[in-house]
Amino acid sequence: MTATLHTPPPAAVDDLTDTRVVRRRLGPGRRIRFAFWIGPALALAVWSIGSATGVIKPAILSAPWDVVVAFQDQWVHHDLLGNVLSSLERSVIGLALGVVTGAVLAVISGLSRLGESLIDGPIQIKRSVPTLAIIPLFIAWFGIGQEMKIITIALISLVPIYIHTHNGLRGIDGRYAELAETIGISRGEFVRHIVLPGALPGFLLGMRFAVTSSLLGLVVVEQYNAVAGIGHMITLAEQYGQTDVIVVGLVLYGVFGYCADSAVRLTARRVLAWRQTLEG
Known about the structure:
Largest sheet: none
Helix content: over 70%
Mean pLDDT: 78
Distance between the termini: 29 Å
Number of strands: 0
CATH architecture: Orthogonal Bundle
CATH topology: MetI-like fold
Radius of gyration: 23 Å
Shape: globular
Structural class: mainly alpha
Low-confidence stretches: 1-23
């Protein structure tokens, strides 16, 4: 019975056939190797050509080679590695807290009507209130140190995890529940083998938004009395008019976000290998 529960439902075979037909209609189905780097490489090429031809003025945006020189200077003569590690520490801890809390709340709310009545309303209210607008309250409650920064990032990350995981739980096809009653499996087995795997695509989608949100929160909180971090480096560069150093910080934020998002996408592609979509 357990093997049957772990096997993709028969409908997945029909979905796979339909998906392949749609992919043929939309274009070639052959996967492009390293496709996720094509866009960034093209953007870098446009940036380089624009800087070399003078279309992009240095006062507006530093040239890529100037940014590389600034990166080397920050690495050799300043504590760039320490700033990067400090930012990563805040982001990872805050993201982990947000993901765990959001997933637990989503499971409680998604599997229990009582849990939904207690949890879903406050989360939806929080969703409509920008977390960045609550930072002054967090400063009053937790001070202006590391704790405030981590809690802000966690709260920003929590919402997309909860929303997408909850939607995934509530979107489970009712036919699976009827099948579970027919074959007589317990509620625990049904949740473990059907509901939670069925909500996994929603959770992974929420992870992509949570990663981006955590970096957004990191950018903001590091402007508040940070003594280390990429945001601290950008703040100092702004005071001294160092545009190239500012771009170094922005590029680092972008690289972190893009790599994290790519990691989540690759994880989803492997974990959800049975769930064929247009992405493959």
